[in-house]
Amino acid sequence: MPTATISIPVEEEVANAFAAASTEEQRKIALLLRLRLQDLVLGPQRALKVVMDEIGEHAEAQGLTSEILESLLRDE
């Protein structure tokens, strides 16, 4: 199957960590991301609300509160 390259914006810290990783680690990360992205865009379509709820739960588990989110959205 032919491949193509896409660009996805990420936090600078993430980009720096990826750039600092070994070639082997970068290859493993790229493979995991390709598989996950393939699953997300080509897999069974889930309702947007379900996906948004999962993202919210993950963000909350990582410490994102509604106050922080509102602050970020106001660009403070």
In short:
By secondary structure, this protein is mostly helical. It has helices spanning 12-20, 23-42, 48-61, 66-73.
Write the element-wise H/E pattern from the N-terminal end onward: HHHH
Number of folding domains? 2
Distance between the termini: 45 Å
Provide the gyration radius in Å.
16 Å
Structural class: mainly alpha
Mean pLDDT, as a whole number?
Answer: 87
Shape: extended
- Helix count from the secondary structure assignment: 4
Estimated helix fraction: 55-70%
Poorly predicted tracts of residues: none
Largest sheet: none
Q: Find the count of extended strands (DSSP E, 2+ residues).
A: 0
**Beta-strand content:** under 5%
Characteristic terms for this protein:
single chain, 76 residues, mainly alpha, 2 domains, 0% strand
Describe this structure in words.
- Helix content is 67%, strand content 0%.
- It is mainly α.
- The protein folds into two domains: 9-44; 46-76, no CATH class.
- The radius of gyration is 16 Å and the shape is extended.
- The chain starts with 11 loop residues before the first helix and ends with a helix.
Give me the secondary-structure topology.
Elements: H1 12-20, H2 23-42, H3 48-61, H4 66-73
